[in-house]
């Protein structure tokens, strides 16, 4: 029976986002989430995870985005701009890296701090992934592998999927490197091309398309609340509430059952 992991990124983005993720787990088919430690609502919502012991929890490692790093700009100077914030996207990060302006030691220090912040709350970790999938970059993989080993995390995301071009290639490379390192990855990934728009109809299509030959599949999603004033600073044009509605849909749950899929977490990978 195929293991289906449905993972929500960006836990901690805002308080309403975190609570929407928990609602999708409690009342829907969401099985897993990834915590965005530098986000503003991390401190106020990380404690809520203890009330949901069956929810798989990973760290959504961040080196880019609208928020500052966990460590100070003085501690990780190569990761921040003049305002002490991360580069806004992977494109700016890549440009800085190509110019030799990203210090791998800064990367390791910052990502270690993010993992420690979750573990310090007593939250067991099932996996690692990353904001804008930077953990799959070949130059960053040695750091990710060391962090997983130190944190005793057994699984990482790999974006292996048909039709994703370079991202699928990176996903396959990640899966191969993970296997050599003794780490686990789902056999395939779905939802990348639907990022921010994984509404009920699209979710039903993804579930229908899961091949019976797959041992495990991750579907990535981004649920959120209908009203969320704190989210204004993230201009991502996501359909947050529609994704949350789809994840709590009885039609989606019934489709998973009829397809013979087994809901689970990264901790269930074998």
From TrEMBL:
InterPro entries: Glyco_hydro/deAcase_b/a-brl, YdjC-like. Keywords: Carbohydrate metabolism, Hydrolase, Magnesium, Metal-binding. Its cofactor is Mg(2+). One of its GO terms (biological process) is carbohydrate metabolic process. Coiled coil: none annotated. GO terms for molecular function: deacetylase activity; hydrolase activity; metal ion binding. This is Unannotated protein.
